[in-house]
Amino acid sequence: MPEEQNENNQQNGSSQSDFETGSITVKKNGHFIHCLTIIGQIEGHYILPSQNKTTKYEHVIPQLVAIEESAEIEGLLIILNTVGGDVEAGLAIAELLSTMNTPTASLVLGGGHSIGVPLAVSCQKSFIVPSATMTVHPVRMNGLVLGVPQTLSYFEKMQDRIVNFVENNSKISAEDFRALMMKTGELVMDVGTVLDGAGAGRCGLGDELGGLSDALGYLNDTIEKGCRQ
């Protein structure tokens, strides 16, 4: 009896930990697929107020390492509904995703805004539902900003990193992506572009319009093909 209780407690603790970090592993047709959610605001080097819904990059990065090294998990589904957040933290997560050997797919629900765009295109195949949106705009910074050439150079270099990553991991060119970033007349008191699901697909920021079953179907098909090889 004590051993059974201990095992149940461990299972309950594992489930609770998974839900707290916004992740779960499911089994279908004998294959394990891990689902990881990136929601709210991506928290980086600074802790955001407690009322903010956040995804902490120090939680996500170890999970990605564990998934890549796992002998059981054969696929990874990233579900995105994010307003953006810390640029370097978001780009770090996107770089990890883009270099994984584990089959990966992303699904944009609600929104994949700002640094959420590189996260959406970082997977091997990206899906976006028709009602979702992506907001593309230049790099911005909150708080005190020094109006000196060095600050502008820093912004430009960080923006180049994002543009190059998106170009290398999607079907959009750097020139077209910059044009979306700098478009005027669409965002109030800002420059940039808002794309719906179909618009993101036409621009090359989404591989396919689809939902959960489409993303899971792609992962299962990819896993099956890998097993047959």
Query: Please, how many helices?
Result: 8
- Helical amount among residues, as a percent range? 40-55%
Question: Structural class per helix/strand content?
Answer: alpha/beta
Order of helices and strands: HEEEHEHEHEEHHEHEH
Spatial gap, N to C terminus: 45 Å
Rounded to an integer in angstroms, the radius of gyration calculated over CA atoms is 19 Å
Number of E-type strands: 9
The global form is globular
Residue share in β-strands: 25-35%
- Main sheet overview: 7 strands, mixed
List the defining traits of the structure above.
7-stranded mixed beta sheet, 229 residues, 45% helix, alpha/beta, globular, 8 helices
List the helices and strands and how they pair.
Elements: H1 2-20, E1 23-28, E2 31-43, E3 54-56, H2 57-69, E4 73-85, H3 87-98, E5 104-112, H4 116-121, E6 125-128, E7 133-136, H5 149-169, H6 174-181, E8 193-196, H7 197-203, E9 208-209, H8 212-228
Description:
The protein has 229 residues and is of the alpha/beta class. Helix content is 45%, strand content 25%. It has eight helices and nine strands. The protein has helices at 2-20, 57-69, 87-98, 116-121, 149-169, 174-181, 197-203, 212-228; strands spanning 23-28, 31-43, 54-56, 73-85, 104-112, 125-128, 133-136, 193-196, 208-209. Strands 1, 2, 3, 4, 5, 6 and 9 form a seven-stranded mixed sheet that branches. Helix 2 (57-69) packs parallel to helix 3 (87-98). It is globular. Mean pLDDT is 88; it is low at 1-17.
